[in-house]
From TrEMBL:
One Pfam family it belongs to: WD40_RLD
Domain RCC1-like: 17-231
Keyword GTP-binding applies: no
Protein name: RCC1-like domain-containing protein
InterPro entries referenced in this protein's UniProt entry, alphabetically: RCC1-like_dom, RCC1/BLIP-II, Reg_chr_condens, Signaling_Regulatory_Domain
Species: Flemingia macrophylla
PROSITE patterns on file: RCC1_2, RCC1_3
Ranges of the RCC repeats in the UniProt entry: 34-85, 87-138, 139-190, 191-241, 242-293, 294-345, 346-405
UniProt keywords, alphabetically: Repeat
PANTHER family listed in its UniProt record: BTK-BINDING PROTEIN-RELATED, ULTRAVIOLET-B RECEPTOR UVR8
C-alpha cells in the first residue's frame, strides 16, 4: 500500500505504551504487540541496538522481536527484559562487576539471555546502579553484580558474575524488591521490610550509618509495608495503612520532609498523609509519587527540571505536577535526572535532563514541565513514527571492558581512599558528568 507523506494506515491501531523505565541517561518502553523501544544515551550499549550511538527518538529494539516481553527494567547503564512464555531474562549494556549476570565483565550491545535464570518463573527483576535482584514465583530472591558494600545480601563483599540465591530469605516469602545505587530492600508477603548493603546516609532505615552484608528487618512505625522503591541513596515505602515513609540521603530535599537533612530511619511524609499512594519511584536525588486518583507529585533535586513543576529550584516538600488537558497519570519512572510518565489517555510525557536524548523528543534540551513524546502519541500513528534498529546476529560484545573509561567508582577518591566526612563524600559522586554533580 502506498501512503502519502503524513498519512497513516487506518487499519493499524496505534501502539499503546504499557510501561516505561528510566535509567541514568536512557529510557525504555514496553508497548502493546510485544514491542520494546529504547532511546537516550547508548555509549555503554544500554539501548540494545547493536551499537553505542545515542538515540534522540524511541527506536524499536529489533533483537527482541517475537520474544513475548512482559517487563523491562533499567539499571543505571544497563537494561533487563523478561519473557514469561520463554521463562527468560535478557540483559544488555555495561557489563562491569558482572551486573549483566552472564558470568563475565563483558559489555553487551544487544540483548542476551541470562543462562542462570533460564527456565525460572520470575515475578520481578530490579536493577540498581551496578547490581540486580530477582524474585521467583516461589519467592526465592537472587542477586548479582557489584557487592562492595554487601548489597547482594550474600554475607560477603565479593562481586557475583552470575545470579546467586540469598540464603537468608529461605523460607521467607518475598513479595517485592528494589535496588538503589549500593543498597537493596525487600518486602515480605506479610508486610515486613528488609534492607542491606550500603548505609552511609541511613538509606537502610536501621537507625545508623553502617553497612549490612545480610538482610536485616526494618521497623516502620509498627506498620506493614506494601510497596517500596529506592532512589540512588534513599528509600521510599508505602504502608498498608496508606502512609508514605522515606529515609536516607536528604541533602537535596529528596525525602520530602520539609528539610534537607538525612534521616536514619523511616519517617512519615506528613504532607501526603491524606493521599492514597498507588506508585512510587526514586531518582538519583528526586522522588515521585502517584496517587490513586492519578495525581502526580514530586520533590528533591531539580537542577534539570526533573520534578516537572516549571522551574529548576530544589524543593523539600511534595509539589503537584500538571499535565495538558488535566490528564491523570497511570505509570511513572524516575531516571537519575529525568522522569517519564504515562497518562490514562495513553500519552507519554518526559521531563528533566535531555542531553543524551533520554526525553525521546528528538532534541537534546532539558525540559522542566511534562513534554509529550510524539512517537507514542495516541493522537497520531505511533507505529509509523517509530523506527527499528538494524537486526544484529552477533553477540554484541565489545572487545574491551568499559572500566577504562570509568576508572573512578562510587565513593572512592582519586587515591582510592574513602572520604572521611559526609560533606567530602558529596564531592565524589561519580559515573556522572562533572557539570551534573552539584
Amino acid at each position: 500500500m502506498v501512503m502519502e507523506e503524513g498519512m497513516c494506515e487506518v487499519d493499524a491501531p496505534p501502539l499503546r505504551v504499557l510501561l516505561v523505565s528510566a535509567g541514568a541517561s536512557h529510557s525504555v518502553a514496553l508497548l502493546s504487540g510485544n514491542v520494546v523501544c529504547s532511546w537516550g544515551r547508548g555509549e555503554d550499549g544500554q539501548l540494545g541496538h547493536g551499537d553505542t550511538d545515542d538515540r534522540l527518538l524511541p527506536t524499536k529494539l529489533s533483537a527482541l522481536d517475537g520474544q513475548d516481553i512482559t517487563r523491562v527494567t533499567c539499571g543505571a547503564d544497563h537494561t533487563m527484559a523478561c519473557s514469561e512464555s520463554d521463562k527468560a531474562v535478557y540483559s544488555w549494556g555495561w557489563g562491569d562487576f558482572g551486573r549483566l549476570g552472564h558470568g563475565d565483565h563483558s559489555d553487551m550491545l544487544i540483548p542476551r539471555p541470562i543462562k542462570a535464570l533460564q527456565g525460572l518463573m520470575l515475578q520481578q527483576v530490579a536493577c540498581g546502579d551496578s547490581h540486580c535482584l530477582a524474585v521467583t514465583m516461589d519467592s526465592h530472591v537472587l542477586s548479582w553484580g557489584r557487592n562492595q558494600n554487601g548489597q547482594l545480601g550474600l554475607g560477603t563483599i565479593e562481586d557475583s558474575l552470575v545470579p546467586q540465591k540469598i540464603q537468608n530469605f529461605e523460607g521467607i516469602p518475598i513479595k517485592m524488591v528494589a535496588a538503589g545505587a549500593e543498597h537493596s530492600v525487600a518486602i515480605t508477603e506479610d508486610g515486613n521490610l528488609y534492607a542491606w548493603g550500603w548505609g552511609r546516609y541511613g538509606n537502610l532505615g536501621l537507625g545508623d550509618r553502617n553497612d549490612r552484608m545480610l538482610p536485616e528487618k526494618v521497623t516502620v512505625d509498627g506498620d506493614k509495608i506494601r510497596m517500596v522503591a529506592c532512589g540512588w541513596r534513599h528509600t521510599i515505602c508505602v504502608s498498608s495503612s496508606g502512609g508514605l515513609y522515606t529515609h536516607g540521603w536528604g541533602k537535596y530535599g529528596q525525602l520530602g520532609h520539609g528539610d534537607f537533612e538525612d534521616h536514619l530511619g523511616p519517617r512519615k511524609v506528613q504532607a501526603l498523609s491524606h493521599k492514597l499512594i498507588s506508585q512510587v519511584s526514586g531518582g538519583w536525588r528526586h522522588s515521585m509519587v502517584l496517587t490513586s486518583s492519578g495525581e502526580l507529585l514530586g520533590w528533591g533535586w531539580n537542577k534539570f527540571g526533573q520534578i516537572g513543576v516549571g522551574n529548576n529550584i530544589d524543593c523539600c516538600s511534595p509539589m503537584h505536577v500538571n499535565f495538558p488537558r488535566n490528564q491523570n497519570v497511570r505509570h511513572i519512572s524516575c531516571g537519575w535526572r529525568h522522569t517519564i510518565a504515562v497518562t490514562e489517555l495513553d500519552n507519554v510525557y518526559s521531563w528533566g535532563r535531555g542531553a543524551n536524548g533520554q526525553l525521546g523528543t528528538g532534541k537534546t534540551i532539558d525540559r522542566n514541565v511534562p513534554t509529550i513524546i510524539d512517537a507514542f502519541s495516541v493522537d497520531g500513528c505511533s507505529e509509523q513514527q517509530i523506527e527499528s534498529s538494524k537486526p544484529y546476529a552477533s553477540s554484541g560484545k565489545l572487545l574491551s571492558s568499559l572500566s577504562e573509561r570509568y576508572a573512578v567508582v562510587p565513593d572512592e577518591t582519586a587515591s582510592g581512599s574513602q572520604p572521611t566526612t559526609l560533606e567530602e563524600e558529596y564531592k565524589h559522586d561519580t559515573s556522572v558528568p562533572g557539570n551534573d554533580v552539584n
